[in-house]
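User: I'm new to structure prediction. If I give you an amino acid sequence, what do you actually give back? Let's try with this one:
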Amino acid sequence: MSTKQLVKAAAEAIKKQQWDDAIEGAKNIIDKDNKSYQGHILLAFALDKKGRLEEAENTYLAATRLKPEEKEAWQGLVKLYPNLDTTNKFKQHQHAVLKLAEIFRDANDLQKCYETVDSFITYARTKAEPYQYVDALDLILPESPIYEAIEGRFGHVWRTYETQAQLVEQNEKKRINTLIGERRTRIGARINEVTLEVKREVYRQSRLSYTYAQLINWTNDDEVRRMYEEKLMQYGHDRLMAWPPGEEKERELANVLKLANDMVIIKHPYKLAWDIAINWQDHKEIKEWDVTVLRQYCTFFPDSDLNRVVMGFLTSSVSPFPQEKQEQTTTDDAAAKSEGSTEESEDDEDGGAATIYAPITEEDRLLMMTEGISGAESLLAFRLMGEYYQHLEEWESNVELMRKALTFLKEERAKTGLDFRFTEDAFSLYLGTALVFYQTPRNHQEAKVLFDAVLAHDPTSTPAMIGVGLIYEEEEEYDEAIDFLERALKRDPDNIRVRTEAAWVKALKRDFDMARAELDACIPILSKKGQSKEILSQTQYRLGYCIWNIDTSKAARKDRSGAYAMFLESLKNNLNYAPAYTILGIYYADYAKDKKRARRCFQKAVELSPSEVESAERLARSFADDGDWDRVELVAQRVVDSGKVKPPPGSKRKGISWPFAALGVAELNKQEFHKAIVSFQSALRISPNDYHSWVGLGEAYHSSGRYIAATKAILNAQKLEESCEANLTDETWFTKFILADIKRELGDFDESIELYQHVMQERPDEEGVATALMQTLVDNAFDSLNKGFFGKAAGLAAEALTFATKAPDAIKDTFNYWKAIGDACSLFSTIQGRISEFPAGIVRSLLGTDDDLPAYQILKDIDNVGTGIVSTDGIFPKDETVGVDLTKALQATILAHKRSIHIASSDVHAQSVAYYNLGWAEYRAHACLPPDMRKNSHKKPTNYIKAAMACFKRAIELEAGNSEFWNALGVVTSEVNPAVAQHAFCRSLFLNERGAHVWANLATLALAQGDLGLANEAFTRSQSTDPDYSLAWLGQGVVALLTGNEKDARGLFTHAMEISGDSCRIISQRYAVSMFDYILSCSSSESLPITTLIQPIFALSQLQSLHSSSASSSSSTDLAYTHLLALFLERTGELSRAISILDSLSTTLEQEYETTESPLALKHFAIVKSDLARCQLSAHLFSEAIDSADLALQLSSDDSADELTAEEGRKLRLSAHVTLGLAKYYSHDIPAAVAAFDQALSESDTNPDVVCLLAQIRWATGSEESRERGRDLLFSVIADTAEKDQQQHVQSVLLLGVIALLDNDAESMDAVVSELQTLRSFVDEDFISPEQQAQLGEVLRAILTASGEGQAQPMVDVMLHPFLPHGWARVAQLALASSCTLNEQEEEGQQGISECEAASEMALRVARKGVPPRGNLTPEDLARAYAGTGRPADAQVGVVVAPWERSGWESLGHVVTVAVVKH
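Assistant: Good question. You get back a string of structure tokens that encode the predicted 3D arrangement of the chain. For your 1463 residues, that looks like this:
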């Protein structure tokens, strides 16, 4: 078929809607003629109807390529595209519509052209996205190819542009918000960075600027044009803020500036444009701005912050612009009316009237400008305000403002891309100039950096050169200052301020003549009308200053027509010029001698300017002389805050230290010690050699409790006293006084007393020093008492009383004086062993003999204490002297405290403390009464107890909130009324629950009432409150003892003893008793550490020192502890002291028995005699020992036997019999000795130790019968222990071994060896001591040596007891003996010597480790170990360790002999 026929067939199929046939036919057409336009059209149509849209689109497009000028294919596409994806095919759809419209236009079918476009526009508006609709509208805009064909058919063009603009605005805003919301959630994203990134992305794709511009060009509506010009301006500004530095930012900046300036030119009142046009200018001088534009800005925007600043500046005298006539008239009229007014400006070109507010006065102007700058974000506003502040010399405000301005400038530079170089220089100059004068010279370094930065790129900047010159002037570098100021003057010769400043620098350089001439020449110029009165005043003052210093004679300075007249002229021109007041104050103070006027001048100068240091110093000294420390602090603080006191780094100017020192003194007087420390330290950093600041710093440290630092400060002050620089006369005593106070607080009382005494020598009438010396003497006495130095304590108390007689009369009527006397007297009642040293005569002279003094009548009706006993000066029997002296000390204490009460009658607090002190004195007197007088005090209180209760009650009445008063009341009422005591303790704890001693007192009360649970709980609370309170541990120990925990009690007593002072009697007593009980509980073979014996001896020795030496005044309790001391001394081998104590005790008890004939006294006498006999035996006083033992045996059989229990009698008689037997033996009376031991044996029920002694004595008699009797006794001991299944008695076995060895009894030796081997295997030191182990080894070695087997025994000792030295020592001896035997074989001999050295060294090592506290070896063991090494140094150590041990001396003699022989 032909192509024509195929086309006809396909068309026929389409008519019949046979789409498949049509498609097939159309394809056949194309296959036959691929350029068949008709075939493509038919195929595309059929495919469209069939729903195969993509194929239909491609076919239509192929047809358009064959015949683009034909409309059928384009029409098909236009109909097809609405059925496809609008989002992806919209641009193709628009292209097809445009091509079809062009075909209709070319065919001059304008109606179809319009309809085609209109249909598409309608479709885009209803079906497409907004941004697609914007693109569709491009078809009807002037840029469209078909615009001429459809012009006027779619309304005004600007309407279309407006629609586009609105749609684009909405789309961009939505897109920006969406993208920001999506990207801000990314990790590490920052909202500011994300916002800029999104805006840049959107702005780069935006067409909004072009749309605004076209709308503005096409619209005929001026309002619309202005509105969209503003929008274009705002949009351009937003884009500028978003662009990073680069070409885009530069292009946008140029566009924005053009738009802004155009709006200003046409006077369109759009604020952003005017702000940009004004603020983005950068000129070197303010006068380069167009004042007309500034005034128009004020007209258009009267409510803006910038308007307030600009209007205030334009109407001020500092403005470089000429004032408009109308503005001037308005200001003058307003000033004449003295009220605000508004003036209407002339009508502008656009009509309307604006209201302008013109400030009336300088105050109104400043207020308006300040209000404006507070909210303005304008570089010009900051610049104008900086210029105005500089004119007003508001330096502080300008510093703050310019710092803010520089920060704002950096932000504006980053936003706009403009350099603003001149603006930055202006801000830097304003800030630098303000820093020169604000808190000068603190900020000079910063100011100089700013000026140098300006001069670096503008070397001719006059303000910068002036600023640098002023800095050099303040830093006293006058040559550099003159150089810069004269350079500035050359550039600006008419600047009168620079000229006067240059002349003033010359005056400061001491060139007064030239300065006077130059300043004199400036006066006429400044006197002209219109010149600044402030500069004139300043110049007149400076001229007067030159005249003042040119002729410094007194007459010239007093001349009222000279410098004085210039100073007055200066004040006439400026009443607020502070330096003039300063110099006038000096004139009145030093020359006119008018102190009142001088102070007023100085005060006015400081009020006007804190930089007037001279006025401030003189004013502060004046206030200090008046004692007005608050004002001193105020003046000094103002000077410090001014910044003048500390020079900048590198400055030649010296700092000013006196304000800090004055602050320190004022703060010391206000007791703000930490602040005072800071102030004095600041003063010393400026002036390290300021003597008074060092003293003040030391006093501040001392008052705040920092004593080490205070000591260092005072020592530094004393170094300055020795130097020539410190011009000091009578002031050095105070440093010694402060140092003495510090030493006293640190507990170094001796040095403190020495310093006080040195001060008293220089200033004998210094009351405070005398009082401090007395108190320190007393404090030192009590400190010595606590440390156990009782003699020193008594001596210091006596010295304090002696000094009291020589103290200044002024302190004799003070509370502290009599308190110190009372405390000194009370110390003698504590150290009764030193009561004979009580200075009764001195005390009598202090207290007087007048018993009718009002002070002595206080409580006299209760305690009956007067001056009678104290003033007694008689001679008493020796046994009564101690009691009389003790009574004198007690009553003197009471009388002294009564005097303190009388003196403190006007001071409630001091009086309450005085009653408190008197109460304790009365209680102390009660405690020192004999026991028989105190035993019924719970039923009938003594006078002293009554007086004590009255005192404490009175103290509580005066000061009920003092917990110590309630505690004291509880103590004195504990025996009289336990319920009241409990209430008092509870009240004290309510006031202060941290009182450890109160808890202990409450626990003691509970203990006395039998409530062990409450006592234990209260003692525990006391321990937790203060772990170092020893009496709490003592009480806990007593509770443990009462509940049967003796071991725990002993540990608690020991701890209490360790942490207590040496003057606590009850702790020493309980500790000594507990240790004695512990020693008695130990087995006889147990070797106790030496510390177990030494510490109780120390405690009892101190206790004995506290007791009275008089027998009559010593209680039975005191005698018992003295006896206990003697027993401890006997145990440690101090026999002479033990004998002395026991002899004294026996004498005392004998006198008591003769006086009272008490069986109890006789019993104690018998026990003491028994113990004395034992000590005399140990001291080899055999005859005395025999006498004492005989007397003890006689007494134990007499009346005293009734008082002795059976066990006590048995022990006493056993001790006496053993002592008597040994004494008889050593007196060579063997039969009597044997008889005594037989008696002892019967008394002791065959005690093994007694048996051993008796066996040795019988063996020593030499007769076979006696020796056999001795053997039988020893065998009986062995048999008894075997029958009772007990451990063998070591001493008995050893004696049998020695006897068998001496008798050469092989059978006995075998039995003994077996027993010795068994004993040797024991390692329990509680059963066999190290000394006994050594004895076992020696005996066993001797027995085995006799049978030829003894050589290996030392090695066995080492293996069994490697921790004991005796085995190692014996090995060393054998090795040495072996080396001597083998000396002919030199090599073997040397080996033996090395083995000897190694063994002896090992013996020394184990001996050193075995001594207390790690072991129980004796000093003799250690000395023998040292002696065994054979070294000279060790031999000397052995002698020192145990001088009584022979081995050490023998070793030392041997090594000396060897050394002499070698020499």
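You can read the tokens as a compact description of the fold. Here is one thing that stands out. The radius of gyration is 59 Å.
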